[in-house]
Amino acid sequence: MNPHPKEMHRQARVIERQRGLREASAVQLRVVSALMIREALTRYGHENLGFFWIMGEPLVLTVAVMFMVSMTGTGHSQQLGIIPFVLTGYSMLTLWRHCVFRSIHAMRHNVGLLFHRNVRYLDILISRIALESLGGLAAFFVAYVPLSLLGVFEPMDDPLLLLGAWFLMTWYGFGFGLILAGITEIWEATERFVSPMMYISIPITGAFFMVNWLPDTAQKLVQWSVLVHLFEMFRAGFFGPKVTTYWDLGFILAHCLTVTAIGLPLVRKAQQRVSMG
């Protein structure tokens, strides 16, 4: 039995729409990849170590902090090993901070790229955050692999859980970065408050403590911070069941979706302001 002409027409439209979506996705993927390469070259140049600094910069900072804390560290962190504890904490903290600071005025600094038809502000922001995420993750493994082979600490317990936490931190940083990218274009004075707030917020990130170490009242308070959940999830993947961690995947996903939903309209509104400027 031959299909009805209307049904055949509907199927043809569906196939055409799917093909168009695949082609558009491929174009945007190439755009984001090109923007990442451009950002890396602009930031680090062709000469000397060049691309190495994509992972070299966070690696140097992480290793320096690991060394300083290992000289003075005491208390709970010694039970896990000071070096792996600092490595897991400072790597995630570096990713969070870089996602935030790379988003400030990202639109006005790259407005010239809109000359290219397929480039949008969203592509620029995605490329910046993706570059920070990949560079930070590479730095983490460059530090982790040799230290693990040397027996400084045991191999990570659940790599997929660890990578999942890293991806979710990247997503949250991207969503929060969208909000900052929009707000700093609409209200320029906002930029002055970002650095102080980032320093003030360090105690509630979970970078230098674990929830299980705190009194019951403090545990309930810090668990209102989505960053604490992300750090706990990351360390759960690294240390496994030998440590007690507190994190809620639903809570994390809800925050990622919320900041993204708030940030996208802000970027759209700020885009008009940047274009007029």
Features:
mainly alpha, 277 residues
User: Into which percent range does the helicity of residues fall?
Assistant: over 70%
How many DSSP E strands? 0
Low-confidence runs of at least 5 consecutive residues = none
The SSE string, one letter per element, is HHHHHHHHHHH
Helix-strand category: mainly alpha
Give the CA-CA distance, first to last residue.
Answer: 62 Å
What is the residue-averaged pLDDT? 80
Radius of gyration: 22 Å
- In terms of DSSP E residues, the strand content is under 5%
Number of helices: 11
Shape: globular
Could you describe the largest sheet, including whether it forms a barrel?
A: none
Describe this structure in words.
This protein has 277 residues and is mostly helical. It is 74% helix and 0% strand. It contains 11 helices and no strands. The protein has helices at residues 5-44, 52-72, 77-80, 82-101, 106-109, 121-149, 159-186, 191-201, 216-222, 226-239, 249-276. The protein is globular and about 60 Å long.
